[in-house]
Amino acid sequence: MSHGARVIRTGVSSGGPAGPPPPAASSSAGSDAELMDGAYFRSCAGMLKVAQMISLLIGFISVNSSHWTDYSAYSYFQIVSMCDLVMILFFYIIHIFRIYRKLTCVSWPLAEFLHYLIGTILLLIASIVAASKSYNLTGLVAGATFGFLATILCVMSIWSSYKVSCITQSTNASV
Fold first, then answer.
1. Which of the residues 22, 39, 131, 132 could staple to 144 if both were Cys, CB 3.0 to 4.6 A apart?
2. For each successive 10 residues of the chain (175 residues), what is the average pLDDT?
């Protein structure tokens, strides 16, 4: 018997329930309605992505509008927050326009999982560095706070989209 952790996709951030596709309409209005996934706007994953983007943008603007005391710490925070914001926006557009259904050569759940994993770790490091170098300047403290908020939202997104389960796999030696 082997024990191991396995990541299982729950389907929360896949743009909707994992049911059969809706029947196709014969009119051109039906095909236009299928272009965008309106349910993703109201889904938990969609709202988490919007909240992440807003908190990253506010953190970036807060740091950018204040005068810096340590250039390298805050330039790192700005680079990480903008890269994370662009990637979250990219995956948001992927889900809204259902591009994941057309480009099946990419494992979108794996790509999104790796983005969130790496981006969350980098954002946590950037927020810690920004908080430690803030010197009680309000703009820098606000930027670090919104960085921590975005980190918490990214962890919530990972937690709601994937569950890690430890399962027991039996190996059959007889062939």
1. 131
2. 56 48 44 74 93 98 86 91 97 94 91 95 96 89 96 94 58 59
